[in-house]
Amino acid sequence: MNYIHTACEKDCAWFLHEIGTLAPLMLMLSIVMPKSALLSPAPLAGVVQPVRIGFIPLADCAPLLVAKEKELFRKHGVKVELSCEVGWATIREKLLYGQIDAAHAIAGLALAMRLGLSTPPCRVVAPFVFNLNGDAITLSRDLWNRGVRDAVTLKKLIRSTTSRRLTFGMVSRYAAHHFLLRRWLISGGIDPNTEVRIVALPPTQMAANLAAGLIDGYCVGEPWNSVAVDKGVGWIAATSEDLSPKHPEKVLLMNEVFIEQHGDQAHAIREALRESCAFCDVSENRPEVVRILADSGYFTNGEDILQRSLIGPFDLGVGKNIEASKFHIFHRYEANETTSERGRWLVDEFIAHGLILPSQRNEASEALRECWNSDALPFPAPQAAAKKTSKTNKRSKSALA
């Protein structure tokens, strides 16, 4: 299937040319990310492995870390190894080539991989939604000082400034972040294809690039909006709740081959995460959730930063706070279900932002029915599951969850 080459691809090339080399960015990355995120070893042939789940250290990976900390995977009979990764492209490639079995991933990656956008087609399945909402748009302090308060005033600045095009970051063309950023720009009368540059960066690099003046703003998940606010280099112009309330954000993404070969383990992972999501969505539990994330070693910015979106108040960086009860929705509003409405939202956004043609809607909808499917994990019969675990499923005889 062919896809449309957007201005984003050219602008990513421009961005890499402007900074001259990736080495400075990798140096910054080594400062903010644990070494385990930079070097994730591939499974060894013939060696028994636990189920490997890839993730990026963002506030909305909380259900994954909470399930690990509270031994919910063990409770449901599956052993898991978490693999901290650098960016969504790494998650995609490791799923494609079987280096991880499942992932906490952006929702749009399910449809993109199924359609073969940017990669060979891969039969992945998203049987579970981690959360709704969770993103925000952060702009530089320089833009604030030049009079920008929203997308409309940004448009006025663009009209009066001809020296250079402004550059904005997002995490992937297939992410809600990209869709929200483009919709926010369009709401102010800005053409995202011609009047600004949009480049893809890993979430962990957003605040550092904003501080360095390499980008003028970005759309990303927490805690990287709050990091920019805390360092005084950015302010928050809009959130998911402002732009597309209750949009699907992250999903559990699995290769169909893994599900076919280890269906009982796939089901156990989903049920452990469902229990964890319910725990994470109770406001009284949020302080413990923050502590688990802060103590995990994956976050280096402290509990105060994590509290802003998970507990609140959420500091916008302009002398104003907002309440945070709907910033992350982990279980309320049937958040964990792969509903047809949420699936249609993805297809509509892919078409609206030029990732596929309108004429390809039927093909995309069919691909969505195959990958956006909670029924892909039927409840295993207890006896069959026990037999498979004891005789054929050696994956479970491995490292502790």
Automatic annotation (TrEMBL):
Where composition is biased (Basic residues), the residues are 388-401
Cellular component GO terms held in the UniProt record = endomembrane system
A Pfam family reported for this protein in Swiss-Prot or TrEMBL? NMT1_2
What are the subcellular locations of this protein?
Endomembrane system
Enumerate the transmembrane spans. 12-33
Predominant location category: membrane
Matching entries from SUPFAM superfamilies are given as:
Periplasmic binding protein-like II (SSF53850)
- Highest taxon above the source species: Bacteria
A GO molecular-function descriptor: ATP binding
Ordered alphabetically, the record's keywords are: ATP-binding, Cell inner membrane, Cell membrane, Membrane, Nucleotide-binding, Transmembrane, Transmembrane helix, Transport
Region (Disordered) residue ranges read: 379-401
- Chloroplast as UniProt keyword: no
Name of the protein: NitT/TauT family transport system ATP-binding protein
- This chain's source organism reads Prosthecobacter dejongeii
